[in-house]
Structure formats: C-alpha cells, structure tokens
Amino acid sequence: MTENLPEPPESQSPADRSATGSEFIFYAALFEGSLIGLALLLGWLGLCDPAQPLHRLSWSEQLRPALIWGLLGTVPLVVLLFSIERIPIWPFRQLSEVTKELVEPLFRGTAIHELLLVSLLAGLGEELLFRWAIQGGLGASGGGPLAQVLALLFASLLFGLCHYLNQAYALFTFAIGIYFGCLMWLAGTWIAPAIAHAVYDFIALIYLTRKVGDD
Predict the structure, then answer these.
(1) How confident is the model at residue 3, as a pLDDT?
(2) In the prediction, which pLDDT does 19 show?
(3) What is the DSSP secondary-structure string of 126-191?
(4) Structural domain spans, the chain
(5) 0.85 exceeded by pTM
(6) Which long-range CB contacts under 8 A does 175-184 form with residues at least 24 apart?
C-alpha cells in the first residue's frame, strides 16, 4: 500500500535534489528575466527616469559611481544578514523561520553558478522595474522633492508586497526597498542598487543554503 507514495525529501538522492533545485532555478530565472522586459516596456511607454537613459552610459558618470556605491551599499546588508539569527527580536525571528522553511527546499541542490545567475537577474530585473521605471518615473512627474519621496515609498511598498512571505519579510523588503531607493539617489543611477542587490542576494543564498544544508 505504500509502494507508490512519493519519496520524502530526506531520502532523495543527490541527483534528485539537484534536479529539483535546477528546475526551480529555471523558473526563477525566467521570472526575474521577465521583469526586465516589463521594465523596458514601462520605459518605452514613458514610465522611467528621463535623467537615466539606458542607451547612454559612461564609465565616469554612471558606471564607476554605481560600482563604488553598489559595493559599499552591500556591506550594511551583509552585516544585517549575519545579525538576523543573533538578535532575538520579533522581525528577525520570523525572518529566520521563513528562510529555514523556504530557502532550503527551493534552492536544494543548486550549484554556485545557478545561484549567481538568479542573483544577477534579480538585481537587474527588480532594480530596473522598481527603481528605474516605477520610482524614477513617478519621481520625475514634476512634483518636486515631495513627488520623489512619495515615489520612493510607493515603489518600496510594491517591492515589499511582491516579496510577501510573512509580515516580517514584507516589512524587511519594504525597508530594503527604501534603502535601495536612497542608494539610487546617492549614486545618481539605478545601477548602484542593482549591483548591491545582486551581490547581496548571491552572498545570502550561498550563506543560507550552505548553512541550512550543513544543519
């Protein structure tokens, strides 16, 4: 009677776990890549920051500041990552629980290059959409500083809602959205939060999946 029951995750072979993880990576990469297309579509329709044209990028004006600010901006995020399980307060406890329940099953068996691919696509797609198109487009509507602040809050709210796993995770990603939006202001380009986003995601995925896998 039990011979047709599905094999429990604990008894799956390494090959089965790798296949499961690689399948998820495919769909995750497809989804993150689709955000790039959506952002470009919104930009084509006029919802984007006119001060940040994609077709005109220079090393001195955009790329160098983006690289510096992006890498520096990753440091507080990594410090926060290593603090989550060490500070026993409500938001951090829920964040720790949701990562243990979801990260390991979703990314089980994934290789380093697969984590890198998803991280790069997430940084590029999500920052193009939420910072360049939504925050940049709404902030450039002619309403002055108030419009820019409202655009920052609105884009960050959408960012948090689109990452809703539980209340703490939504609140965490809302705060991270504000952080990335301010990083774009400081650097003058959406590429800075895209770099910080991608680097942080890659470090976090390696840390969480390898740590969970070793427990």
Answers:
(1) 44
(2) 52
(3) HHIIIIIIIIHHHHTSS-HHHHHHHHHHHHHHHHHHHT-SSHHHHHHHHHHHHHHHHHHHHHTSTH
(4) 17-47+59-214
(5) yes
(6) 176/77, 177/130, 178/152, 178/153, 179/73, 179/76, 179/77, 180/127, 180/130, 180/131, 180/156, 181/131, 181/135, 181/152, 181/155, 181/156, 182/152, 183/69, 183/70, 183/73, 184/127, 184/131, 184/135, 184/136
